[in-house]
Specification:
Keywords: Chitin-binding, Disulfide bond, Glycoprotein, Repeat, Signal. One of its GO terms (molecular function) is chitin binding. InterPro entries: Chitin-bd_dom, Chitin-bd_dom_sf, Chitin_bind-dev_reg. The chain is mainly beta and about 210 residues long. Helices cover about 5% and strands about 25% of the residues. The radius of gyration is 78 Å and the shape is rod-shaped.
Amino acid sequence: MFYKCNNGYACEHNCPAGLHFNEVLSVCDWPSSACCDPTILCDPPCIPGVTCPPTGPTLAPPTLPPPTLPPPTLPPPTLPPPTLPPPTLPPPTLPPPTLPPPTLPPPTVGPTPSDPCIPGVTCEPNNCHNDMRCPALDGTKPTLFAHAECTKFYKCSNRKACEHSCPTGLHFNAKLFVCDWPSSACCDPTILCDPPCIPGITCSRAFRF
């Protein structure tokens, strides 16, 4: 306790709980600094405001309103990229494929007849048969002889007699071995036989083999 003068009166006051009145400093102080109670060890006096504990009543800390915080700044939401349908492209225009030229098999050439046809005369190689009148070897001049029909004749080839036909309207002349006019060939008895002519001179037409 301590006294405080007020208008000529000494008014009694109490130090806050746990403090003693320091007569040197005239403040309520810690008991060890006030050095009032002889049962409490007295420490050296402290320097007010530096080493001395605070004096006066212990005040409760002021009640402050909670701080007003600004609203938190949130980053903008990350949205996935929009899913777009794939673009519809026209089909590519491709050039027409370049194909190699077709490989054709070589032409099949039939066998060359040993007895070629004479221009103006039809060859009939399938009508050949063995004939003793044909020589063993074909000479440079063909071997010809008469047929049973006046419009046909035989020509030897490889020891075979092959049947041939005279051009239309002619008969085989067995004497001159040519296709001749019927009146000169003298083969058909129903046709008047003229005197024989010389082929290429007095005869107007004759086919010689």
